[in-house]
């Protein structure tokens, strides 16, 4: 970064009123009992305020159960909600170009915003879109009965995959294979409706897990499918063989759980949102080819943190069930921070095109490599190089009192304990920051 950047102390914010109100609110925030610690971030010629507090908490602000789709490295719904409430209005477009299970778009829809989202994995769209059109319990039950009849016609599996039998009882696998073939066929015939899509979403989420609420024998959590070899070892160690699980009963139960928190106004909000919602399977550095320019009021997003999470490995069973070739998904998995920063700059350039003047980007990252790499430093740089204006850094820290020196090395070893968010804004004018 060899340009001369503006300094917050000397250059007034672009729209003083709302930005100043946000700074004031963050500085005075004490909703969960702690006062905000205000620090400063310095990078070359740039200084940014850093606000550290517990800004949202899972306990005190219950999220809607509609979010309860497990996904590796997803954030809590309270995170996008914090920014949606403050930095957008009903009817505004809210985008997440790395949407994963869709925490941002689902929360945006529930808050009466228009949800837009992208992800390079085709799984993401299948996890998000059906939740804008939840079917009734009766519709799910009737459809499952119809599919179940197809299973009855098939008494045993023709050729059971030995790798899958490590996870599933043969009869469970038969039901699962019939369901899978039914869904794939419906899709290729162009007949997959919102009830099928909902069932596919729920089943995808029940493939593996710890409890009897999943189709598999005891294994890792549902967002992390192990390899068949690893599962063989788990089975041997635990002296377990896959028990029969009622695929259709499990789907019905989880389906009800997902919908149980939906009030009438939520159904109306989802209905309104789906008319204008847009979800694309695309790499985030190509997003501008899919969405209309200068339309987005707010982006709330969280990219892959270098190579911390192996999304392709974790999702192999989900991809199998959905008929997706996991090896063909060009997932970012950067080892070098320089490559990661270049990718993020390319993403920010796309976001800049998509944002309305004065639109916002809340870009969440974690500490990686045991705190040795603070990705927010690189995010600031990527945003500035793309021509966005960094406004502040917000650190949501639930274990606040135990980590007094949280701006230095903290207790955060996996990079996901605290949320570290760089907030940017698109300048209303076309002036480049370097011209200031
Ligand atoms: C940290 S997760 C986002 C989780 C999301 N915030 C949620 O709550 O579910 C990062 C996501 O980036 C996606 N991804 C990886 N490479 C990508 C790329 N080049 N473009 C878009 N998405 C990508 C992964 O599939 C994963 O869903």
Automatic annotation (TrEMBL):
Keywords, comma-separated and alphabetical: DNA-binding, Methyltransferase, Restriction system, S-adenosyl-L-methionine, Transferase
An annotated Gene Ontology molecular function: DNA binding
InterPro entries, A to Z: DNA_methylase_N4/N6 (IPR002941), MeTrfase_CN4_CS (IPR017985), SAM-dependent_MTases_sf (IPR029063)
Coiled-coil ranges per UniProt: none
Known catalytic reactions: a 2'-deoxycytidine in DNA + S-adenosyl-L-methionine = an N(4)-methyl-2'-deoxycytidine in DNA + S-adenosyl-L-homocysteine + H(+)
Matches recorded under SUPFAM superfamilies: S-adenosyl-L-methionine-dependent methyltransferases
Gene3D superfamilies named among the record's database cross-references: Vaccinia Virus protein VP39
EC number: 2.1.1.113
EC category name: transferase
Annotated DNA methylase N-4/N-6 domain residues: 50-113
Pfam families: N6_N4_Mtase (PF01555)
GO biological process terms, semicolon-separated: DNA restriction-modification system; methylation
Family under the similarity heading: Belongs to the N(4)/N(6)-methyltransferase family. N(4) subfamily.
Name of this chain's protein: site-specific DNA-methyltransferase (cytosine-N(4)-specific)
The organism of origin for this protein: Cerasicoccus arenae
């Amino acid at each position: 970064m060899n340009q001369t950047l503006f300094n917050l102390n000397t250059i007034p914010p672009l729209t003083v009123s709302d930005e100043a109100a946000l700074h004031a609110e963050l500085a005075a925030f004490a909703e969960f009992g702690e006062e905000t610690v205000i620090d400063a971030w310095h990078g070359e010629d740039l200084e940014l305020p850093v606000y550290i507090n517990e800004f949202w908490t899972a306990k005190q602000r219950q999220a809607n159960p509609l979010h309860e789709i497990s996904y590796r490295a997803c954030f809590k719904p309270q995170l996008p909600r914090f920014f949606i409430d403050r930095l957008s209005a009903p009817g505004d477009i809210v985008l997440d170009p790395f949407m994963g299970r869709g925490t941002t778009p689902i929360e945006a829809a529930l808050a009466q915003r228009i949800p837009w989202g992208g992800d390079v994995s085709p799984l993401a769209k299948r996890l998000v879109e059906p939740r804008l059109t939840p079917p009734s319990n009766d519709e799910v039950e009737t459809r499952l009965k119809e599919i179940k009849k197809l299973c009855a016609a098939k008494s045993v599996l023709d050729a059971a995959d030995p790798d899958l039998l490590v996870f599933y009882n043969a009869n469970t696998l038969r039901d699962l294979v019939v369901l899978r073939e039914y869904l794939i066929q419906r899709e290729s015939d162009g007949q997959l409706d919102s009830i099928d899509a909902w069932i596919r979403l729920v089943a995808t989420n029940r493939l593996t897990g710890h409890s009897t609420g999943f189709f598999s024998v005891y294994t890792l959590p549902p967002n992390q499918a192990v390899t068949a070899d690893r599962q063989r070892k788990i089975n041997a160690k635990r002296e377990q063989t896959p028990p029969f699980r009622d695929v259709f009963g499990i789907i019905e139960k989880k389906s009800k759980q997902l919908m149980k928190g939906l009030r009438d106004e939520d159904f109306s909000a989802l209905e309104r949102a789906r008319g204008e919602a847009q979800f694309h399977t695309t790499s985030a550095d190509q997003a501008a080819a899919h969405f209309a320019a200068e339309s987005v009021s707010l982006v709330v997003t969280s990219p892959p943190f270098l190579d911390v999470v192996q999304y392709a490995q974790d999702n192999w069973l989900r991809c199998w069930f959905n008929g997706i070739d996991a090896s063909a998904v060009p997932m970012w998995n950067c080892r070098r921070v320089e490559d990661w920063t270049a990718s993020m700059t390319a993403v920010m350039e796309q976001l800049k095109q998509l944002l309305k003047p004065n639109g916002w980007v809340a870009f969440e990252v974690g500490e990686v490599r045991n705190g040795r790499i603070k990705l927010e430093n690189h995010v600031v740089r990527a945003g500035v190089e793309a021509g966005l204006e960094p406004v502040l850094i917000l650190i949501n820290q639930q274990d606040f009192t135990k980590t007094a020196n949280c701006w230095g090395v903290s207790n955060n070893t996996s990079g996901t304990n605290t949320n570290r968010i760089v907030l940017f804004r698109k300048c209303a004018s076309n002036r480049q920051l370097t011209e200031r």
